[in-house]
């Protein structure tokens, strides 16, 4: 063998050896700590501690009886899926008993944030009392109330498994600032208190009431609510931020839907990313002397356009009391109350 062929043979030998080592590494790979199951059944996904169970893999209790699903009968006057194949939740598109039976054994915990600064404390009683009747009834719920007037938070009787924490926040001279500042406060709440012990979070406007069920059908990674005022509107006239110099900018011919600043949510990690990005962008705009057309709602719309929500809630999930019911709206679950802006906001 000449020197050249000795080199070639040893090269091939080394290559085969390397392949063998790689194969062995892959087949004998042990689970990383984060992938390990902790005290779970072999069926998997039953206990909250399983961390590698893929999102969306829903495990039904054995032999549960419920109405037969159909793909040819159901809601017909509304669209129940987006072009990126995220479900849009409407009354009649889901089975609440089936979903509750699936989520109950997962032992999930849900946080909700609500801000009541200045005169907005007047909305807390109805908000909290109706949440007891309709918001994730039977599940672990932790309400976080942010206010500058902790003494004005009403005592509302809460069912077992539900609790309320009052956080004190400073007031502000402008309602726009109170509203927009929520994003950063929610970001900090997730970092400091929720990220290790809470599964889902919903961030809600206080000037609203629950009228019907808001429950497990709304759970997903990143959840947006379609605004009741604009779901029939051409996107070129939606009230997105239209100045290219703003980080909330959405151009003509762009955007999907107009989402509410008054209700959004999802898994805490997702909502952390959302609130962090939106508050940073809001502050970057402020440095340039820009405030987006609808403050954090504009930044949320820009975020949700790029980061597609994995589930959309129809306007049933944030209606407005002054609006008459439309034919496609079969129930109203949560709705903004009629308010006298001039009387309750610190500025016009
Ligand atoms: C239904 C809905 O999507 N509403 C959004 C819309 O206007 P809205 O007219 O609904 O805004 P709003 O007056 O309800 O203010 C938003 C929220 O900020 C809090 N607040 C406001 C003022 C005040 O003096 N004290 C106080 O606590 C309170 O939780 C209130 O619910 O556009 C705003 C843009 O900034 C927000 O995105 C709102 O969420
Ligand atoms: Mn509101």
TrEMBL record:
A GO term for molecular function: metal ion binding
Primary location group: membrane
UniProtKB keywords: Glycosyltransferase, Manganese, Membrane, Metal-binding, Signal-anchor, Transferase, Transmembrane, Transmembrane helix
Top-level taxonomic group: Eukaryota
Entry-linked PANTHER family: GLOBOSIDE ALPHA-1,3-N-ACETYLGALACTOSAMINYLTRANSFERASE 1, GLYCOSYLTRANSFERASE-RELATED
Family the entry assigns: Belongs to the glycosyltransferase 6 family.
Protein name per UniProt: Globoside alpha-1,3-N-acetylgalactosaminyltransferase 1-like isoform X1
Species assigned in the record: Solea senegalensis (Senegalese sole)
């Amino acid at each position: 063998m000449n020197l050249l062929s000795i080199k070639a043979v040893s090269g091939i030998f080394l290559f085969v050896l390397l392949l063998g080592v790689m194969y062995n590494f892959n087949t004998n790979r042990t689970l990383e700590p984060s992938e390990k199951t902790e005290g779970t059944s072999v069926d998997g996904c039953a206990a909250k501690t399983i961390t590698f169970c893929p999102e969306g893999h829903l495990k039904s209790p054995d032999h549960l009886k419920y109405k037969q699903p159909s793909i040819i009968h159901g809601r017909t006057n509304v669209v129940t899926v987006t072009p990126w194949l995220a479900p849009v939740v409407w009354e009649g598109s889901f089975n609440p008993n089936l979903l509750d039976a699936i989520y109950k054994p997962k032992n999930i915990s849900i946080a909700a944030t609500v801000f009541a600064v200045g005169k907005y404390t007047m909305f807390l009683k109805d908000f909290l009392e109706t949440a007891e009747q309709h918001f994730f009834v039977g599940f672990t719920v932790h309400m976080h109330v942010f206010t500058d007037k902790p003494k004005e938070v009403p005592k509302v009787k809460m069912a077992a498994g539900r609790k309320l924490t009052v956080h004190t926040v400073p007031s502000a001279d402008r309602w726009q600032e109170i509203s927009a500042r929520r994003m950063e406060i929610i970001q900090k709440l997730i970092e400091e208190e929720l990220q290790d012990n809470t599964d889902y979070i919903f961030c809600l406007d206080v000037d609203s009431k629950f009228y019907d069920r808001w429950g497990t059908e709304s759970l997903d990674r990143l959840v947006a609510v379609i605004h009741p005022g604009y779901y029939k509107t051409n996107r070129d006239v939606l009230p997105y931020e239209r100045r290219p110099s703003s980080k909330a900018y959405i151009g003509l011919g762009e955007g999907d839907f107009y989402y509410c600043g008054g209700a959004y949510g999802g898994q805490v990690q997702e909502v952390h990313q959302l609130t962090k990005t939106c508050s940073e962008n809001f502050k970057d705009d402020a440095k340039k002397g820009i405030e987006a057309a609808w403050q954090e709602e504009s930044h949320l719309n820009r975020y949700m356009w790029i980061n597609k929500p994995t589930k959309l809630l129809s306007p049933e999930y944030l209606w407005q009391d002054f609006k008459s019911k439309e034919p496609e709206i079969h129930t109203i679950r949560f709705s903004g109350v009629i308010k006298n802006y001039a009387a309750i906001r610190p500025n016009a």
